[in-house]
Design the sequence.
């Protein structure tokens, strides 16, 4: 068992993972690049963790904004932050990484492990480290106060893939004492392309954008925002995602299969599966278009799916349309700023070379 674990990120997921690990007797080095998230935890002397109806106070081993200090001499590093900060964290820690360390992105979204590796290598870090990514965050959780977090649910199974894929089992063995829910993915292509947020986030925001700007009460995001016609486009985008996965020999669940797997719902198509899902009933839509459903999920989810499609010769016209329209509306080139081929280190590679790279880590 690891005696000290670094947790990077003091938001909802980061405080939940830090608090849980501390409750299991682990020394936790908690780090966030933004001091305002750490100051209340420092002042309170730790995290108040609520799980299974019980609240306990969990003391951290170290609380710091210095990533290098948090990870030095630590074998396991859990990064629990939005995916748009992965590159920032990689740039902050590259010089402190050392041989044998394991970095787990919770979750990686699409291409997270590869972007992290490409970033540290570009900075000159040659340490032999393993980078893994999870398909999704293991917890349903929310901060209930400046130093308090509640864990409301734990997923029964979460895919995890390492880069390179040959090291996945080593990472699972490392995590198993705390998180036996993690199960092996074929590789990081499987975790990356199993990113359901890419389907359910950008498109409904785009197609409800007028409503978001004018409906200050907030609509029911899934039940009102995903109408039959919106569901048709999401389904078309899902077919493109599945085609990209198939081109790389990776099996992923369709959105319909995923919904049936994760929730107590029923229906003959995507629209009815969403409408019959009670877990979606109370989720409100945004009241401002500056929302991570677009600003994170377009560059960090749709762009890399489109990129992998281009490399494999798989057309993704509906995904590309959402990328283009949101880029125009938000006046941001999401493609060049996101996980494109250049930022993932895939420029000039063929489909076969990319697949080999994910398996072995060798170009």
Sequence:
């Amino acid at each position: 068992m690891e005696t000290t674990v670094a947790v990077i990120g003091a938001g909802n997921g980061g405080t939940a993972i830090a608090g849980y690990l501390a409750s299991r007797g682990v020394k936790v080095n908690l780090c966030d690049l933004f001091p305002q998230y750490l100051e209340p935890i420092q002042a309170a002397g730790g995290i108040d963790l609520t799980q299974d109806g019980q609240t306990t106070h969990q003391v951290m081993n170290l609380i710091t904004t210095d990533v290098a200090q948090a990870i030095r001499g630590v074998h396991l590093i859990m990064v629990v932050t939005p995916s748009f900060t992965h590159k920032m964290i990689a740039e902050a820690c590259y010089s402190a990484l050392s041989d044998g360390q394991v970095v787990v992105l919770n979750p990686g979204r699409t291409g997270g492990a590869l972007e992290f590796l490409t970033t540290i290598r570009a900075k000159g870090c040659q340490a032999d480290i393993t980078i893994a990514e999870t398909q999704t965050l293991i917890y349903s959780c929310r901060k209930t106060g400046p130093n308090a977090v509640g864990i409301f649910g734990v997923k029964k199974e979460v895919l995890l893939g390492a880069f390179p894929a040959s090291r996945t089992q080593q990472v699972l063995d490392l995590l198993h004492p705390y998180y036996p829910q993690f199960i092996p993915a074929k590789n990081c292509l499987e975790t990356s392309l199993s990113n359901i947020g890419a389907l359910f986030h950008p498109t409904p925001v785009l197609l409800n954008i007028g409503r978001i700007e004018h409906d200050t009460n907030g609509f029911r995001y899934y039940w009102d925002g995903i109408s039959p016609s919106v569901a048709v486009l999401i389904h078309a985008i899902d077919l493109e995602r599945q085609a990209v996965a198939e081109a790389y020999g990776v099996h992923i669940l369709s959105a319909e299969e995923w919904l049936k797997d994760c929730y107590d719902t029923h229906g003959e198509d995507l629209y009815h599966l969403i409408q019959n899902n009670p877990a979606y009933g109370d989720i409100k839509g945004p009241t401002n278009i500056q929302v991570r459903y677009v600003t994170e999920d377009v560059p960090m989810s749709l762009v890399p799916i489109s990129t992998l499609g281009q490399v494999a010769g798989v057309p993704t016209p509906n995904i590309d349309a959402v990328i283009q329209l949101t880029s125009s509306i938000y006046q941001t080139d999401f493609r060049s700023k996101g996980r494109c081929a250049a930022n993932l280190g895939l420029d000039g590679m063929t489909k076969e070379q990319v697949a080999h790279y994910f398996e072995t880590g060798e170009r």
